[in-house]
Design brief:
alpha/beta; three-stranded parallel beta sheet; four-stranded mixed beta sheet; Rossmann fold; 7 strands
């Protein structure tokens, strides 16, 4: 089960891992907290408005999930950029209900302290709270993505997933989130064309997904 707050998080953070699990025949459930309706990117040139963005991002999310092989997508209906203000017990309870229904063996989410965006960290904290509230024998493993300068406090990742075998699928799913990635990818490709070292760095970053483990209580 992948539990993250925004459309495109599932692909940009965990898309390679999802594709590898689906390639191996493992069922994957994606739980998306919001529709990213407060996102600043609306295409380049813009092809969305503030009013049309939520529906567009849901459509992009469904397309990306289909490309990754995900058939079980759950939408929580939270409001973008407000997850940190949601009652943490209530949010953990919502997530626990998903866990009890699906009974996953593994949950992928964001680190509660080291994932930059407040929505990321709030969702990661709620996932950890929900998992820890389950009976010990029912708790799935939790693997957390982390980013930013705070990584120095975490030390090396516990797991580095090599996504190279499914990188093409991951990048196709990322491209499906066109409103969010089109401009970013164009800028990166332009820079990569001029700088082979940058291209190599980007390829490496896209091919490896690092995770830190949540210690079971």
């Amino acid at each position: 089960m992948v539990i993250l707050p925004h459309p495109d998080d599932e692909t940009l953070a965990c898309g390679g891992s999802i594709a590898l699990h689906r390639k191996a025949g493992t069922p994957v459930t994606v739980v998306c907290g919001t529709l990213g309706e407060m996102g600043r990117n609306m295409g380049k040139p813009p092809f969305a408005t503030r009013e049309s963005l939520p529906a567009l991002r849901e459509k992009e999310l469904r397309e990306a999930c289909a490309l990754l092989g995900v058939t079980d997508l759950r939408l929580m209906g939270l409001r973008d950029k407000t997850v940190e203000f949601v009652d943490p017990e209530w949010l953990a309870g919502r997530i626990r209900a998903y866990l009890e229904e699906v009974e996953p063996s593994l949950v992928l989410t964001y680190h509660p302290l080291y994932s930059v965006h407040p929505d990321h960290m709030a969702m990661g904290a709620a996932v950890v709270r929900a998992v820890d509230s389950l009976p010990p024998e029912a708790r799935p493993a939790v693997h957390m993505r982390a980013f930013g300068s705070g990584l120095i406090n975490l030390g090396p990742p516990d797991l580095a997933v090599d996504c190279a075998p499914v990188l093409e699928r991951k990048m196709a799913a990322a491209a499906a989130h066109r409103s969010q990635t089109q401009g970013m990818f164009a800028r990166m490709e332009a820079k990569a064309a001029e700088d082979p070292a940058f291209r190599e760095q980007q390829l490496k970053q896209r091919s490896i997904e690092n995770y830190w483990f949540h210690a079971k209580g």
